[in-house]
Amino acid sequence: MSRIRASFRIAIVLLALLFLVGPVFVARAQTNPAQAPAQSSATPNDTQYLWIAGSSFQTRDSTTAFETTRNTNNQPTGCIYATSSGEFTAPVAVPNGATILGLDYYLNDTSTSQTKAELTLNDSDMIMPRELITVEISSSVGLTNTYAPIRAPYAPYVVNMQSRGLFLEWFPRVTNASMQLCGVRIAYTAPAEPRPATDYLFIVGSTLVNTNSATEHGYAGAGCTFVKINGRTLNADVDLPQGSQLTAVRTYFRDVNSADLTVKVIASNGQGVTNTLATLTSPVSNTAVVNADQTLNYTVNESNESLSVVADFAGVLSNQLRLCGVRFQYTNPTTEPTQDSRFITGSTFVPRRSNVNYTSDANGCINVSNEVEDLTTNVSAPEGAKAARVTFFYKNAAAGPTLNLYSFVGSGEFTQITSVPVMGTGTQNSVSINYPIENTDKGLALVWDASSASSEYALCGAKIDFLYTQQVFLPIALNNY
Question: What three-state secondary structure class fits 330?
């Protein structure tokens, strides 16, 4: 994960100086939910935020049909809706050790009924899931939002990815565009510094996505997924801190079949060169979720390589073979970086609507073969940094495709930051930008515009380089404020 770092601006310095001479009381302004994020008067001043666009959610069961919206200029937005019955899910990349405060839920509801579209924040040890936050909105007034805090018995909730993974689930209960999820913003306070020597990232099995549109996955409960009817492979992006040392991988399986479910951790340079870092297979267990572990020694460097996890279900088309989660153990870097990178494998992008035919190869390159439609992914970015460059990795490219970086707000509206085109028939192109990261107000999403369905070009990866702004170090007394 690109490390989320607190960046203290001039305003914070002034507040800190005032604190030294007397108490300071800050009132939060009330905002229009259609134009700006919701705020909670109980949210601490050192709160950080993770945004997840509705369009970055995927279905828990691949038989669920869905669409995402476009604005009046036919540009993509971040709102998603179901066109057949089903549920949606998304991973939650809040840092291990952070304290989750609550979430903002942005919904566009124009339905005539009083159906309640439910959003839950869950954690699971792959056996017993828990609903940390459950929030329902039934307004029928268009764009609306609500803030839902963590409550008893889970508050205060400190993320512990050594034992439990986090994921969101959305239950629209309406199968048309009158009920749209436009975004979620999770509020949390950052983990204590210095970071522990050993840290963890937990990816829940049900948040893995298809590498091929022919694959049909299903939900087995407790965050577990399986392949049904057709297909065999799922994958997910792995977001670890730049400079950290990956030391072990643990997989959580439920295997009552003689076939082996194989999980691989893969590093890719986006230009056709991949390296398999770990391979784990499922031991047979009649009833329980069991673990498989592998140690390794790999230094994370997303300026050069993306990381992904690929699960191969060996052609078993039933819930007898389930992947419930993958846990990464790593050692935090000993020095703070001056720059950072976020490198995402192409095959971990998701289509913005169902019924799109797409395929991925062994190098993580994905292409659309039957119709024009965008592929997208959410981007976690370090608060206080500046996005300095966007790189688009592709292969066998013809003219046309572009990689677009957007910011988005609670209304789901996308604002283009930059567009990176294909240059000839090469393998990559980059565009320099100077974009300050402000997670309080907006999130980031990447969208690949394929322009037309063709096997002549493929998305192999996307990378954003960040530069950290100058840090302001406050007196020790303020660290306890």
Answer: strand
Please tell me the distance from the alpha carbon of residue 476 to that of residue 464, in angstroms, as a whole number. Answer: 33
Residue 109: name the closest of 156, 174, 57 by CA.
174
Q: Give the other-Cβ count within 10 Å of 250's Cβ.
A: 18
Which residue, chain included where needed, has tokens 């829940």?
204
Q: Which residues share a beta bridge with 188?
A: 48, 100
| Tokens standing for residue 452 | 């037309």
Dump pLDDT digits (tens) for 265-320: 999 999 989 999 999 999 887 778 999 999 999 999 999 999 999 999 999 999 99
Residues in Cβ contact with 72 at an 8 Å cutoff, skipping those fewer than 6 apart: none
Closest CA to 231 of 63, 48, 19, 399: 63
Nearest to 474 by CA among 193, 164, 216: 193
Q: In what order do the strands lie in the sheet with 402-408?
A: 350-351, 375-379, 443-449, 402-408, 414-421
Give me the half-sphere count of Cα atoms (radius 13 Å) on the Cβ side of residue 183.
33
Identify whether 156 is preceded by a cis peptide bond (ω within 30 of 0): yes
Alpha helices in 250-301 (DSSP H): none
In 145-156, which positions are buried (b, 16+ CB within 10 angstroms) versus exposed (e)? Answer: bbbbbbeeeeee
The tokens describing 163, both together, are 């034992």
Tokens of 353: 């609507």
Helix (H, G, I), strand (E, B) or coil at 354: coil
| Residue at 447: amino acid letter | V
Question: DSSP per residue over 130-175, as a string?
Answer: EEEEEEEE---SEEEEEEEE--TTT-SEE--TTT-EEEEEEE----
* Amino acid residing at 264: K
DSSP secondary structure, 74-121, as one string: S-EEEEEEESSS--EEEE--PPTT-EEEEEEEEEEE--SS-PPEEEEE
CA–CA separation, 402 and 129 (whole Å): 40
What is the identity of the amino acid at 62?
S
Residue 429 · residue 402 · CB < 8 Å: no
- Record the tokens describing residue 346, joined without a space: 């192409």
Q: Are 415 and 408 in contact (CB under 8 A)?
A: yes
Q: CB within 8 A of 480, min separation 6: which ones?
A: none
- pLDDT of 176-229, one tens digit each? 999 999 999 999 999 988 889 999 999 999 999 999 999 999 999 999 999 999
How is residue 224 written in tokens? 């577990």
CA Rg, the chain, in Å?
21
Position 98 scores a pLDDT of 97
Q: Residue 332: CA atoms inside 13 Å, Cβ hemisphere, count?
A: 20
Give the DSSP letter of residue 365.
-
Rounded to whole angstroms, how far apart are CA atoms 39 and 36?
9
Q: Are 459 and 446 in contact (CB under 8 A)?
A: no
